[in-house]
Amino acid sequence: MSGKDSVIAPSAITDNSGPSQGGWALGLFGVLVFSFTLPANAWAVEGFDPVAITVWRALLPGLLAVVILWRMRAPIPDARTWFSLSVGGLCVGVGFPLLSSVALTTINPARAAVIMGLLPALTAVFATLLGKERPSPRFWLATVAGLVVLLAYLMTRRGAGELGLGTGDLAMFAATCCSALAYVLGADRAKVLGGPRSMCWTLVALLPLSVPAGIVTALVQDPQWTVRSTVGLLYLAVASTVIGYFAWYAGLARGGIARVGQVQQIQPILTICWSALFFADELDALTFVVGVVVALLVAVGQRVR
User: Fold this and answer.
1) Is the separation of the CB atoms in 192 and 12 below 8 Å?
2) CA within 20 to 30 Å of 33's CA: 4, 22, 161, 260, which one?
3) Cβ atoms of 112 and 103 closer than 8 Å
4) E strand or H helix at 76
5) Angle subtended at Cα 178 by Cα 19 and Cα 297, rounded to the nearest 5 degrees
6) How many CA atoms lie within 13 Å of 67's alpha carbon, on the beta-carbon side?
């Protein structure tokens, strides 16, 4: 992969120009994968330090990305593309996993999931500021309505109704901001590189940091290799970081960052259901009511321009 022919120009055209319906379907699949990320992370922190989770969540998929790119004979991105890939990589490969792991040491996955409900709105904000998308007032109305429903649910959910914000809440909000920025940068590069290549090159861009950090972590850390912690770490490294982002970036590139990003409004409800199933959190009828309302608001956001 060398020479002028191996460099992708910014004007390159990929097959990500399909119908917005295809983008919505890809985005929905990505959200389904992402919805188990917080429960998997809660499993991982039972046996691994948050720093170790961050390092191995970047290193393992980064090595896998090298193999994927080699098999795809993927051209090397140009210098301008590398900047976006590096910034997006720091957000999705360092900022989000580290901050969310720290958050999950003090708050449960259900509460973290509701805070993650801010992600579609933050993604739309970053898309407006950086991606030059201009959603309509009705779009923003649907977005705000969804956020109000999610925040109201947070305040009424048993065990998570405190009005004050703790360190875990703030860390989760910062993680959500990192994820939103990474989505916008990744989707922009996916229009040029394609979803899988965009995510793979993002992970490769982190290898100069993740490889030495992985070596140091392996020498100084004393992890607890339980079944739950191991499964959680592997899910984060493979499903959340590779498979989910493949579909998600491709969906954002095809259907529009702000519009497809609204599909993620249903992710908190899915995560709460996973939390109830695997962590014995209470799941009452209100969860399903909120899920239906949020899903309807997502549908409205998809239909307005």
Assistant:
1) yes
2) 161
3) yes
4) strand 76-77
5) 45
6) 7
List pLDDT tens digits, range 118-139: 787 788 778 877 766 677 788 7
Domain membership of residue 12 (yes or no) is no
| Angstrom distance (rounded) from CA 189 to CA 201 | 10
Domain count, the chain: 1
Round to whole Å and give the CA distance between 255 and 257.
Answer: 7
Q: Evaluate whether residue 4 is within a structural domain.
A: no
Q: Which residues of 266-289 are buried (b: 16+ CB within 10 A; e: fewer)?
A: bbbbbbbbbbbeeeebeeeeebee
Task: Please answer whether residues 250 and 189 qualify as being in contact, where contact means their C-beta atoms are separated by less than 8 angstroms.
Answer: no
Q: Which two tokens stand for residue 98?
A: 């580290």
What is the length of the chain?
Answer: 305
CA 248, CA 260: separation in Å to the nearest integer? Answer: 9
Q: How many helices (H) and strands (E) does the chain have?
A: 16, 2
What dihedral angle (degrees, nearest 10) is formed by the CA atoms of 296, 297, 300, 305? Answer: -160
Would you say residue 170 lies in a domain? yes
pLDDT in tens, 28-57: 899 999 889 888 988 998 888 888 888 988
Task: Please state, in angstroms and rounded to a whole number, the distance separating the CA atoms of residues 140 and 144.
Answer: 6
How far does the chain reach from its first CA to its final CA, in angstroms?
41
d(C-alpha 247, C-alpha 241), whole Å: 11
- Taking the C-alpha atoms of residue 166 and residue 11, their distance in angstroms, rounded to an integer, is 45
∠ CA 294-135-248, rounded to 5°:
60
Domain around 117: 17-303
Confidence (pLDDT) at 163? 47
What is the pairing mode between strands 7-8 and 76-77?
parallel
User: Is there a domain that residue 11 lies in?
Assistant: no
